[in-house]
Amino acid sequence: MQERTGQFTFGGKPFTMVGPELRVGDRAPEFELTDNDMKPFRLSSQAGKTVILSVVSSLDTSTCDIETRRFNQEAERLGDDVVILTISMDLPFAQKRWCGTAGINRVKTLSDYKEATFGKNYGVLIRELYLLARTVFVVDSKGVIRYIQRVNEGSHEPDYKAVLNALAELAK
Predict the structure, then answer these.
(1) Which of 77, 88, 91, 137 is surrounded by the most beta carbons within 10 Å?
(2) Domain total of the chain
(3) 64 noted as active-site residue
(4) How many whole angstroms separate alpha carbon 14 and alpha carbon 5?
């Protein structure tokens, strides 16, 4: 499996990313993750919709909490043709508990806890921590990656405006 160093830090400390470095224009790799009810969820189930993949380390951290709440607010304005999925290594029942406490009702949280196949296939698995690195992917209705934002420092939030601008460009 491919590994990359120097692209991601957490608290200023560099870590190793496992998996390929996907690029805009690549076909989004299919995945099967676990939803909050312990059921499988596949990217292909969203065919025909634009999908924002908000990848976070853990919903139980302040930055990931803020990010997911923000995307939940943005989802209210985006309509039914846009789906926002927040993906972490958190266990599904922990995600469900967090969503209930946080009032998350528009973003769907998914877990990569079983084998980290999402993390490995999307190149966002942090080898040393076995967590996912903060990244945002925008996948168009045909399953092609149209935007990628890699947040190089794990304690930083993504640039939400840039993500929404990329989404607006797709709508043109």
Answers:
(1) 88
(2) 1
(3) yes
(4) 7
